[in-house]
Amino acid sequence: MFYSLNKLERGLKPYYKLSNNRLGFKSHKPRKHKNFQRYHVTNLDNNQKKVKKDSNVKSNDVDDDPSEKTVYLSNFEVEDKQKVIIEEFNKKLAKDPNDVQAWIEYASFQDQMHSKHLKQIIKQKKLSIIEKGLAANHNSIKLLEIKLHLLAKLLPADEFCQQVEAMIQKDQKNIILWQALIKMTRTSCALCKVSSILDLYVRCFSIMKQRSKQNPKYYDHQVLRLLFQCLIFLRHAGLWEQMWEIIRINLCLNLPLDHDTLKSINTIDEKVLINMEELVLTSKLPLNQLWLRIESLRESCHWTSVDLKKVDISLIGDERRLVSAEETTDFIYPTISKDSSFRLIVFSLLSLKVPLLPTRHCTIKDLELEDYSWCIDSLESVLPMIYSIIWKNELTSRLSDKSVIADLLEGKLISGPQYLKFHPAQESFLEFIRSVFHTVAEKLPPSQRTSILIWWLRLERLLVNIAKSDALCATNRNKKLKSTIKSFLKKAENRNNLHFYREFALIEYELGSLDSCLQILKTVIQSQDNSSLGHEDKAALFSLYRTILEILLMSNSEDFKLDIFKDIMKSLKIYVFTCFNYDSNMSVEEMLYNEILRFLMNPITDELEEEFFLPNIYCDILLCYSYLLHYKSNNFDNVDDILDLCDRCLMHCAKCERLQERFYETKVTFIQFYQSRVKNISNVLIKTVREALDKYSCNFLLLSTNALFETELPFWKWKIKSAKFNIWSILASCLAGRARITYLRNTGLSDTYEAMINKMLAFHKAVSTNEEVQDCPLLWKLYMLLLQEHNLCERKGEDIYYEAVSQCPWARSVYISASEVAPQNLPQIQDLIKEKGLRMHVTLEELDILRE
Predict the structure, then answer these.
(1) Model confidence, pTM
(2) Per-domain boundaries in the chain
């Protein structure tokens, strides 16, 4: 008997279609497109053989491929069009060689004429065109900036500096040439040394001082901007003592103040510091960790020069703590125009790491800080993104989450002395900042004095919010803060200032005292005499009404104070018809609506540059009107009317940039309020924020709101658009990515968590090649922090160290962070710090001696 076995057929192989739209999958490797060949080599003998083999081929079948014909013709047509465009440019420029924009467009057109692989040839072609344009337009700033930008890409650093030095010899007054020379010297690893860069600043200062009498306001602004850049460079190099002495002497000279003002500052006792260092040295930590601990301890405790009359010279082991007159004399500048004192104070406080509160696009533009990426080295600069001074509710909670803030504070993103994280000199440095605020404010006119003190109170409110993640030191500091502000408000010059009471009430709100906050606002509002208020007092009082309405309406139903709300409604009605001459029989909503219409019908002027800390009365009127409509109609059916009213206000302010930016903030605030209380209209919010960011790309409220959208996106929708945005938008995206990672870690979504980490690594890699922002020290420190947090230092730490140091060779904090991710290179890092002349408090050799 024979048995037969039927063969089993192989089952069909499953076909998987992979695409970019599938979660967690990447499509198969795409085919490389063949480059189009303009010229072809054809072997005629082979063609003849093919024809002979196929004798049945008809003559009609031998025609060329029609698609190839169209390709060839289209390329020839492109060349013909390019020739026509070039002829048009030549005719236009021959007719009007002074048309600067035409020269720039002609240079930009070279990108379309040549292949992208021929970058050097394109740049050389552009340079020749720009140089011809400069020959016809000697005073064109735009053409000169483009020329310097192209030269920096084409030439090595030393040759570039030689050419710019030769140009400076012919035109010593040109600040653009000086800035280009300083920038190249600072960013070049081979040329960057503290002494050489300071020499360039001294030379530039001496020339700019001579020119200041011709056009005082213009040259004051240019010199103060140059002074600010020099102060930031000293801070980055770790030379805090020299930086503060320059600031102090300039403030004493220009405000004016007594020569010894701000000189006697209480810092940590040297003996206490030595005892703390001995504890560190006896901890038996590895040598690299010992060095980092000693460095961070000393840099956080030393920021003022030593007074030899008060300190024992034997306890001072660092000669750089002694600042001589020769180190400061060349940087002292007496301002000439009256408006320059306020700008000098703003620059001084920014140098001391006090962020602008709030930070607006127009403010950055007015202060000429657009090219500011290299100045950002510490976490304090981005704090207004984490905590919004203008508007805060549960929608912004993800960026200001305690775990997110704690990770940032623990990530060693703060360089030098600081007031955010607990350390032995934290309170001393904070008291120092407060004394600077109060001292300089007393020498200013009333409105400017109010602005500076509002800035200080907002800083205190920000610190109260940050301190919630550090409960150990929050309690004692908060008690001391309340007593400080109360004594401040008891002074005669501050007793009647409504702005100060509003900020004090908001501090109480941050401390968790809702009843105390409402009581302060209600008492101040009801104590005002509405018949004798000036314009500034009216604006301040409306900001109080807006604040109390926001707090009441945003509170939970259990905490809602109906009796207070009714009292405020009555007070607001009396205030509006008294101050703006309306009939008392009208409702409050009608009065406010008519006041908005009056604003829309009358011509307006833009805000003053120094008023960016003060509230705007028309924005507050619009918000109060919106809040009252919400209270009257719970369904809020007229939301479209409110949005239309906001759009009309935006159109009315089209020529007033500062005011229009405020109204964009107002519209975003209202939409967020509507979302939190009624229903989600995120599409309207996203559209409004994107529209506003197109015009005001450095506004921190808009950037933080946009970052919130990014935190809610899945990782495959998280796009890297670093080339299109400025440094602030990139930092906002970085914070959003970190918040997203923290959220995924806390929720336990491990796969998505790992994918988001990879996305952030790709984001940082793309940003590091962006020429506009790759010189930002904080961005590199965030990159290195990401490697540390996820144990990637062994694989990528050394490569990132080399890249970071090559892009930011002047920033001491970058070297300190690099020693964390590449500890095996610590001797090399220390050698580089010495070579560049940066501040180093202790060497490895000294540590060995101290340990013994």
Answers:
(1) 0.86
(2) 76-154
